[in-house]
Amino acid sequence: MFLFSASCRAFERTEYMNLQIKDELIPGTKLHRADMGGATGLDFLRKMFFISNGVMLSQIREVSGIDGSTLQNWTKRGWVANSRLKKYDMNQVAHILIINMLRSCMQLDKIAFLIQYINGKVDDRSDDIIEDAVLYDYICKILDTLMTYEVCSLGSIRGAIEDVTEDYTENIAGAKTRLTNALEIIVVAYYASLIKGYADNMLNDLNNGYEMGGAK
To answer: In a 10 Å sphere around its CB, with 0-12 CB exposed, 13-18 middle and 19+ buried, how is residue 172 labelled?
Structure first.
């Protein structure tokens, strides 16, 4: 069940969300949490990499539903780093899943900017403020926390972010602020994608009923 409301005033901005969201899928994938023992975040990634330290494109496609041409396009545009020996490591997979979890509600170039805001150039690890796998883990933990709330304000989201990232240590000045700002956008955008998916399903049901029974 999804409940959402927001209000804005000319000089005073007030935003709040009443949410009852139970996301059955692992973020960025088409896999049900229950089928993976409830694992998300790093726990899920470790299961993916339990046997090998690299996964093939076919495995990413099976997990995420992303086709090969789409991933090649992302790589060509510089949004995803090239595979090594046709295999992707854990951080690359996490990076891909973050893009995938946002692309239904955010333009790809904006997602690319958001990730660059966090970690700089995609093919340069030296300017990263956080590993992509840890970033994905933070996102999943924040979402898991917020799914337990019935009423959730933007203040609650910021509080959940602060709690989950408590163990984060800056490697450069201002990194924590950058991380917090980006996580807030990612989490709100992901909720928007869930709500959009719910609305799409409602519309499909309405359309199917219309086609079967005509206008009511």
So the answer is: exposed
Contact 156, 65 (CB under 8 A): no
Query: How is the beta sheet containing 151-153 ordered, strand by strand?
Result: 6-8, 13-18, 151-153
Nearby residues of 121 by Cβ (< 8 Å), 6 or more positions away: 127
CA distance 199 to 197: 5
Q: Is residue 1 part of a domain?
A: no
Give the DSSP letter string of 142-154.
HHHHHTT-SEEEH
128: left (phi over 0), alpha (psi -120 to 50) or beta: beta
Q: Is residue 103 part of a domain?
A: yes
Residue 182 lies in a domain: yes
Q: Which domain holds residue 15?
A: 6-213
Per-residue pLDDT tens digits for 46-97 = 999 988 889 999 999 999 999 989 999 999 999 999 998 899 999 999 999 9
As for how many domains the chain has, the answer is 1
Q: What is the pTM of this model?
A: 0.85
Examine residue 63 and state whether it is found in any structural domain, yes or no: yes
* Pairwise CA distance, residues 169 & 104, whole Å: 31
